[in-house]
Amino acid sequence: MKIFYIVIAVMSLAAFILYAVDKRRAIRHMWRIKEATLLFFGFFGGSVGALLAMLLFRHKTRHAVFWLVNILGLAAQAAVYFLLLKRA
């Protein structure tokens, strides 16, 4: 379980930082982070950080695919958590 917590925390922090950097770069009209990268980190462990960053920075909130992928990622992470909890 500890490994799961660490992975979720690291991926959430990484997703949060990536969204923050991408928002800053968008404001400054600079090179952006690929959407696929943002979606990857959100779905594979970082959905909490991605969703928090979306709301806090008001970034990518108009794109339905970002909501869908991050919410599905959150559901998948919750399912894994409960499977691990049941197994322990």
What does this structure look like?
The chain is mostly helical and 88 residues long. Helix 2 (35-43) packs across helix 3 (47-57). Helix content is 80%, strand content 0%. The protein has one domain. The protein contains four helices and no strands. The protein starts with a helix and ends with a helix.
Care to count the β-strands?
0
Arithmetic mean of pLDDT = 97
**Distinct helical segment count:** 4
Sum up the overall morphology in one term. elongated
Question: Please, how many domains?
Answer: 1
Major sheet attributes: none
Name the helix and strand elements from N-terminus to C-terminus, one letter apiece: HHHH
Specify the structural class: mainly alpha
> Spans with pLDDT under 50 lasting ≥5 residues?
none
Helix content range of the residues, please? over 70%
N-to-C CA distance: 8 Å
Percent strand: under 5%
What would the keywords be for this entry?
88 residues, mainly alpha, 4 helices, elongated
Compile the SSE list and pairings:
Layout lengths: L1 H26 L7 H9 L3 H11 L6 H24 L1
Helix pairs in contact: 1-3, 2-3, 3-4
Summarize the structure.
The protein is mostly helical. The chain is 80% helix and 0% strand.
